[in-house]
Write a structure and sequence with these properties.
Blueprint lengths: L7 H6 L29 H7 L2 H13 L5 H17 L2 E7 L11 E3 L1 E3 L5 E3 L3 H5 E2 L19 E5 L6 E5 L2 E12 L8 H21 L8 E15 H5 L2 H6 L24 H16 L4 E6 L5 E6 L2 E2 H21 L2 E4 L12 E10 L12 H20 L1 H7 L21 E2 L2 H12 L5 H7 L22 E3 L4 E7 L5 H27 L4 H16 L11 H10 L7 H4 L6 H9 L5 H48 L2 H26 L7 H27 L12 H6 L2
Parallel strand pairs: 1-8, 15-16
Antiparallel strand pairs: 1-2, 3-4, 5-6, 6-8, 7-8, 9-11, 9-12, 9-13, 9-14, 10-11, 14-17, 16-17
This protein binds adenosine-5'-diphosphate and magnesium ion (MG).
Length: 718
């Protein structure tokens, strides 16, 4: 029998020059190659194409968050269609984000037959504003039965339409929201937009107390950092686990990992850089402001970060970024892995969510200023964030829960499942002295930056760093570091905005009362910040979040450690969550319940796919390879070797039967949460047992008999 594994494929895998299509073709100095935003129906494009008064009314509608009137829509639709046709688009789609966390699209042609054998391009305001995809197959968590399967998509004019190119055509994508016919949100965008409105109202109310009469709207901003792996597509397609689940369900740790720290910020291999350059060009055409790129910690792991934008646009752009990174990889013979943990024993991938609040007049509310006025404003908003994160720590944890994340959070490579805040030494000292009122009073005033002369201004830009903290202040924003690499930004940011809105309102109320009681603004803010920080400082932690001591201390402080997805998700429907989401009109109890149900179902389904794939690979690939190896060893007649191999093969068969049994015997008539707990407590351990033995066999069985690419190949051949 011919050997099943040969080395030449590895050499083939490392070939790449023919795969890319941009290399050598682009003259970046040519005007035609100034591509930023080329495929976006941007405000500038709108201004040049829309009648003046239409453009003005559209902007006013957007600025005031008012609903759109249909006459306006007709005019915008006509301009958008002309623009899209000039760009070669033949079809349009309402582009939306169902609860799968992915994007969805159904394409409609612009062209309708005229009856005389020709076709005419048509696109009305009605078609722009509303679509009705057959929605029966999207997850809804029981919000609507299939007999009432209608779902509506509604144009979101605040996120610009764009064109997706394909070698054989182009498609106009119109960002839309997706709701049931009864008006309930079935997507990620609606609650995000609602939460941005909620936060804006609360923040503007607070700003008025600070004497700001100008600001009309406050936007939350997000700059996400995306981590991902690249593997050669040849290996990808030889691994059913990667194809089915996005992660390797088997694979022994290679002799070389990232112990040498030789990858992080290392020079980027040429093939990878070529891929990055082309991905970034595609993203720039779509108006995604990509900015930085670098190697990450693990071998073959990379990172991309854009400049921040408002949360809604940033969230849409993030979905596009994931899609473009995956599409372009194929042109270079690569596959881009967004799974949170593609390789066991190697760092997984996350997404850092840099978050702040900015006014429409251009100031960042989390930016400590040089003058006393901006400093007290900063302290107020910062204290509100601390209070919000402390109160809703469990909900924040739940907002980043999924099956992939359970490999990461708490595994000393990503922040722990315990949510805490890192403020940095100077800021913690500032809050500490405000809270204790210690010192001679001048320190307190000095730290606040209130006295004259203004004593040490608040710290900050850059500041110190703590890579182990899940929620870190980084100079002018908070960095929520616990998101998974495959995640949509929408839900975590919906949570952040909503809980921040609640905390800002609570602090604003205290501030109002203190002012009414006759305090000066400085003293009133001092009182409010002091109280908020004293009550919530338990959530602030400066030390090493990976240490054992922190786990013990966090428990003593009463912070929650929700280790797994089934531990965390019930907080999505906790009374405290229902109350804040209801009060701010972001998600009703029914909408929250539907999300809870969908998230749990996804956990169960993903793990079931993993467990069945694992059983199938073990049964049809690994066991046969092990048996062949055993036969060869037997044929050698060396009894010692037989005694070494045979028990391991038997163990594999035994653990495999156990996995097959738990895959078959799922509990019947139980809640989705109980089903999820069964996956966690029974199925995952059975998978882990099979894997441990199989990975041992990988080190035992003749290399030419081993049926699949190994970690050292997938991670180091590029
Ligand atoms: P660093 O703080 O590490 O020096 P940057 O200031 O460039 O780096 O920011 C890192 C990330 O934070 C980037 O993705 C950036 O878009 C994002 N970011 C910067 N300022 C803000 C802000 N005001 N709101 C949200 N994200 C921001
Ligand atoms: Mg990083």
């Amino acid at each position: 029998m011919p050997p099943t594994r040969l080395r030449p494929p590895n050499v083939n895998a490392a070939q790449w020059t023919a795969n890319g299509d941009a290399l050598g073709a682009v003259d970046l100095t040519a005007r035609a190659n100034q591509i930023y935003g080329a495929n976006v129906f941007s405000p500038a494009e709108q201004r040049s194409r829309l009648p003046k008064d239409v453009y003005k009314r559209l902007q006013q509608t957007l600025d005031n968050g008012k609903p759109l009137d249909e006459a306006l829509a007709d005019s915008v639709a006509a301009a958008m269609k002309d623009w899209a046709l000039e760009k070669g688009a033949t079809h349009y789609t309402h582009w939306f984000q169902p609860l799968t966390g992915l994007t969805a699209e159904k394409h409609d042609s612009f062209y309708a037959p005229t009856g005389d054998g020709t076709a005419l391009a048509e696109f009305s305001g009605g078609e722009l504003i509303q679509g009705e995809p057959d929605a029966s197959s999207f997850p809804t968590g029981g919000i609507r039965a299939t007999f009432e399967a209608r779902g509506y998509t509604a144009w979101d004019p605040s996120s610009p339409a764009f064109i997706l190119e394909n070698p054989n055509g182009a498609l106009l994508c119109i960002p839309t929201a997706f709701a049931s016919w009864t008006g309930e949100a079935l997507d990620q965008k609606i609650p995000l937009l609602r939460s941005m409105d909620a936060l804006s109202k609360s923040a503007v109310r607070a700003l008025r107390l600070f004497g700001d009469e100008q600001t009309q709207r406050v936007y939350t901003t997000v700059g996400p950092e995306q981590e991902y792996f690249l593997v050669d597509e040849q290996y990808f397609y030889e691994r059913p686990d990667l194809i089915n689940t996005g992660r390797t369900l088997f694979g022994a740790k290679p002799p070389k990992g990232h112990e040498l720290d030789d990858h992080y910020f290392g020079s980027i291999p040429e093939r990878i850089l070529a891929y990055m350059l082309e991905s970034e060009r595609e993203l720039q055409k779509l108006g995604v402001p990509v900015k930085t790129r670098h190697n990450e910690v693990a071998p073959n792991q990379y990172e991309l970060a854009p400049i921040f934008e408002n949360s809604n646009v940033s969230s849409d752009h993030q979905q596009l970024t994931m899609q473009v990174l995956q599409n372009v990889a194929r042109r270079y013979g690569l596959v881009c892995l967004m799974h949170e943990k593609p390789f066991a024993g190697v760092n997984g991938s996350g997404k850092h969510n840099n978050w702040s609040m900015g006014t429409d007049t251009g100031s960042n509310l989390l930016e400590p200023g040089a003058d006393p006025a901006t400093n007290i404003r900063f302290l107020f908003f910062c204290a509100a964030v601390i209070a919000a994160v402390n109160k809703h720590q469990a909900l924040l944890r739940a907002s980043v829960a999924n099956a992939g994340q359970d490999h990461r959070l708490g595994a000393n490579e990503a922040p722990p499942a315990i949510i805490s805040i890192f403020l940095g030494a100077e800021l913690e000292k500032a809050f500490g002295s405000i809270a204790s009122g210690d010192g001679d009073g001048s320190t307190e005033r000095g730290v606040l930056g209130l006295g004259t002369p203004v004593l040490p201004p608040l710290p900050m830009h850059g500041g110190d760093r703590n890579r182990t903290s899940p929620f870190a202040f980084t100079g002018n924003k908070f960095e929520f570091r616990a998101l998974g690499s495959s995640m949509s930004l929408a839900f975590p940011n919906t949570v952040l905005n909503t809980i921040a809105a609640e905390a800002i309102d609570a602090l604003a109320e205290d501030l109002e009362n203190a002012l009414k009681a006759g305090a000066t603004l400085e003293d009133a803010v001092g009182q409010v910040v002091k109280q908020a920080y004293s009550q919530n400082k338990q959530v602030c932690f400066m030390g090493d979040n990976y240490s054992e001591e922190w786990h013990a201390e966090a428990e003593a402080r009463g912070l929650l450690n929700l280790r797994t997805t089934p531990d965390a998700l019930p907080w999505v429907v906790d009374d405290q969550t229902v109350s804040v989401f209801g009060n701010y009109g972001v998600l009703s109890e029914r909408e929250l319940e539907s999300r809870y149900e969908v998230f749990l179902e996804q956990y169960v389904t993903k793990l079931n796919i993993e467990a069945e794939t694992a059983a199938s690979i073990a049964r049809t690939m690994i066991l046969p390879a092990a048996v062949r190896h055993l036969n060869e060893v037997k044929a050698s007649g060396i009894e010692d070797l037989v005694a070494e191999v045979r028990p391991v093969v038997e163990e594999l068969a035994g653990s495999l039967r156990a996995l097959e049994a738990v895959n078959r015997d799922h509990p019947a008539d139980c809640s989705t949460l109980e089903h999820a707990e069964y996956m966690r407590d029974t199925v995952i351990p059975a998978m882990n047992d099979v894997r441990a033995i199989a990975d041992g066999l990988e080190r035992l069985v003749a290399d030419d008999l081993w049926p699949r690419p190994k970690y050292e190949e997938m991670l180091f051949i590029k």
